[in-house]
């Protein structure tokens, strides 16, 4: 590898099932709160963000909120949020 992509870190932030379920973490409120959390994590050097297709209600809502938050952050701060600098993982149920 030529170093063009982010290395896999020793620590990650997991995007938990409360997004898309709990009051204040739905729709716009969820996206805004997710952006706050993601910014703090990124400023601390975290570049691996994990989610799962079953998180949220309906299932996958947490992934949608995280995706919307990252998309907005990429516009606001493209240097920190360019796709080659972050790693996004997920888990699927068979």
Structure, described:
- Helices cover 39% and strands 9% of the residues.
- Strands 1-2-3 form a three-stranded parallel β-sheet, with no helix packed on it.
- It has one domain (13-89).
- The protein has 94 residues and is mostly helical.
- It has three helices and three strands; from the N terminus they run βαβααβ.
- The model has no long low-confidence stretch (mean pLDDT 88).
List keywords for this structure.
single chain; 94 residues; three-stranded parallel beta sheet; 3 helices
Strand content: 5-15%
Alpha-carbon distance between the two ends? 32 Å
**Estimated structural class:** mainly alpha
Low-confidence runs (pLDDT<50, min 5 residues)?
none
Indicate the overall shape. Answer: globular
Largest sheet: 3 strands, parallel
Topology as a string of helices (H) and strands (E): EHEHHE
Number of helical segments? Answer: 3
Approximate helicity band? 25-40%
Care to count the β-strands?
A: 3
Number of domains: 1
Q: What average pLDDT do the residues reach?
A: 88
Q: Tell me the radius of gyration.
A: 13 Å
Order of the strands making up the biggest sheet: 1-2-3
What is the subunit organization of this protein?
A: single chain
How do the helices and strands line up, and which of them pair or pack?
Blueprint lengths: L12 E2 L12 H17 L4 E3 L10 H16 L1 H4 L5 E3 L5
Parallel strand pairs: 1-2, 2-3
Helix pairs in contact: 1-2
Summarize the structure.
This protein has 3 helices and 3 strands. The protein has helices spanning 27-43, 61-76, 78-81, and strands at residues 13-14, 48-50, 87-89.
């Amino acid at each position: 590898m030529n170093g063009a992509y982010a290395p896999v870190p020793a620590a990650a932030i997991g995007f938990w099932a409360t997004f898309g379920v709990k009051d204040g973490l739905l729709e716009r409120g969820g996206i805004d709160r997710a952006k706050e959390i993601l910014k703090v994590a990124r400023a601390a050097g975290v570049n691996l963000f994990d989610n799962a297709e079953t998180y949220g209600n309906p299932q996958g809502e947490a992934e949608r909120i995280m995706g919307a938050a990252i998309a907005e952050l990429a516009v606001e701060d493209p240097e920190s949020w360019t796709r080659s600098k972050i790693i996004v993982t997920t888990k699927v149920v068979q």
